[in-house]
Amino acid sequence: MLQSDLSDEFESNELDSLKWYGTNPTWLGRKPSMAHSDNVSLENGKLILSLNKAERPLYPQGYSHDVGWVVGNKSTTYGYFEMRAKLMDAPWVSCFWLYNWWYKDNWRTEIDICENNPGALENRHTLTSNLHVFSAPPEKGDIKELKSFGKNYYIPFELQKEYHVWGLEWNKDVIRWYLDGFMIRESANTYWHQDLHINLNSESNKWLLAFPDDTRLEATYAIDYIRVWKVAAKFTSEK
User: Which CATH number belongs to the domain containing residue 57 in this structure?
Assistant: First the structure.
């Protein structure tokens, strides 16, 4: 069953505030890129995340650029999450991920569905996915420290050139990642049982060699739709 409160076709003239925050409500972003609502717009049925080098009188120290970032108002546990998008063809990471910024029962976790930085030649064909545990209850002694379970997948074509469909199947037993209907990763669900919010953003990221390039600020990250089904199942849909 499609969850309409978590899904969006982005066909209106402005962002639906009942579904989305127009920036990150709890974090400025990874330096030197800062989330700002000026970089979020809707155009021709697409959510457009852009970036710029802004001159703001009260710019926090260490931040030099603005990026687009939206976060889902509502959180959910389990389901099938799907995005059709054209990633940013510039040295910034295009991201589609799930996260909770609060500590619920001492848990703080994250699931990264898509991370891609075409700006670094060695990463242009690399699609990254991650599972993170940032905090866990004290009795979970085996994961008191940060645990990350990342995997890179080589894509033989350039993801940034066309629209593609990313999917995540998440249930109490297993987590599976999809690209254009093909499963590219599967992992047992050992820790990820918390309500998470959808995040869509671009950002700098030193680990993925994504650093600002002021000659390529015209690039955008275009999202055609976000669709979430409550029952975990494999879907690939076209608009």
Answer: 2.60.120.200
Picking from 95, 96, 100, the residue whose alpha carbon sits closest to that of residue 76 is 100
Enter the pTM of the model. Answer: 0.92
Q: How many domains is the chain partitioned into structurally?
A: 1
For the chain, helix, strand, coil in percent to 5 are 5, 45, 45
Within a 10 A sphere around the Cβ of 215, how many other Cβ atoms? 8
DSSP-assigned letter for residue 104:
B
> Which residues constitute the domain of residue 57?
20-229
Residue 40 within any structural domain of the chain: yes
What are the DSSP calls for 120-174, one per residue? SGGGTTEEEEEEEEEE--TT-GGGSS-EEEEEEEE-SS-GGGS-EEEEEEE-SSE
Specify if 204 maps to a domain.
Answer: yes
In a domain, 8, yes or no: no
Among the ranges given (18-22, 100-104, 122-126, 139-143), the one the predictor scored with the smallest mean pLDDT: 139-143
Please report the pLDDT score of residue 142 as a whole number: 66
Q: What is the pLDDT of residues 93-124, one digit of tens each?
A: 999 999 987 776 788 899 999 999 988 888 89
Q: Domain for residue 57, yes or no?
A: yes
